[in-house]
Amino acid sequence: MSAQHGPLDGDRADVVRRLRDLSERSTRYAERAGAAHGLHRSDLTALSVLARAHEEGRSPLTPGVLARALALSPSATTTLLDRLERSGHVERSHDEVDRRRVSLAMTRAAGEAARSMFGPMAAAMDAAMDEFDDEQLDVVRRFLDVMIDVIDAQEPRAQDP
User: Fold this and answer.
1) For 138-147, which contacts have Cβ atoms below 8 Å and span 24 or more sequence positions?
2) pLDDT tens for residues 128-141?
3) How would you label 121-153 residue by residue, b for 16+ Cβ within 10 Å and e otherwise?
4) Whole-angstrom distance, CA of residue 134 vs CA of residue 6
5) Peptide bond into 120 cis (omega under 30)
6) Per-residue pLDDT reduced to its tens digit, 49-62
7) Domain coordinates of the chain in residue numbers?
């Protein structure tokens, strides 16, 4: 490994450009797919958070947990959830013991929409990975994990005047 930590050039700069391109293209695809289903980008992000929580055994989520995950105000979260509930993608339910506590769940329709939007992309990515052996995929996985950690650790700074 290189100890270089200054301005990027050469191969490292090319890798960063490719990561940026992947991120931008993924975002544009999600926006187009969402628009085709009448969903805003924020709707897709919220549904993604709910789906991941379910996959990780952390569901149901509350509106407050979702708001923190999305960095939204309570009023913006309410607007988002109202929209997702009207479109049939999210259900809100009140706790039997504490009626003030609200739980969120994705609907079957939301799961079907997600499979419709992202299933073909996942299948194409799976097919593309056939070009790589398990050891190569392990290196890619480790690299992406490190890049995710780097991004998560960054704090944007205000622009100097």
Assistant:
1) 147/19
2) 999 999 999 999 99
3) eeeeeeeeeeeeeeeeeeeeeeeeeeeeeeeee
4) 32
5) no
6) 999 998 899 888 89
7) 23-117
Query: At residue 122, what is the residue type?
Result: A
Give the DSSP letter string of 42-79.
HHHHHHHHHHHHHHTT--SBPHHHHHHHHT--HHHHHH
* Region for 159 from its dihedrals, namely left if φ exceeds 0, alpha if ψ lies in -120 to 50, beta otherwise: beta
Whole-angstrom distance, CA of residue 72 vs CA of residue 129:
36
CATH entry 2.60.40.10 includes domain 23-117: no
Among residues 94, 112, 110, 103, which one has the least CA distance to residue 59? Answer: 103
Find out whether 44 and 110 touch, Cβ atoms under 8 Å: no
Q: Could you tell me if 47 and 85 are in contact, meaning their C-beta atoms sit under 8 angstroms apart? A: no
Query: What is the CA 39 to chain-centroid distance, rounded?
Result: 14
Tell me which residue of 19, 9, 13 sits closest to 146, measured CA to CA. 19
Q: What is the pTM of this model?
A: 0.77
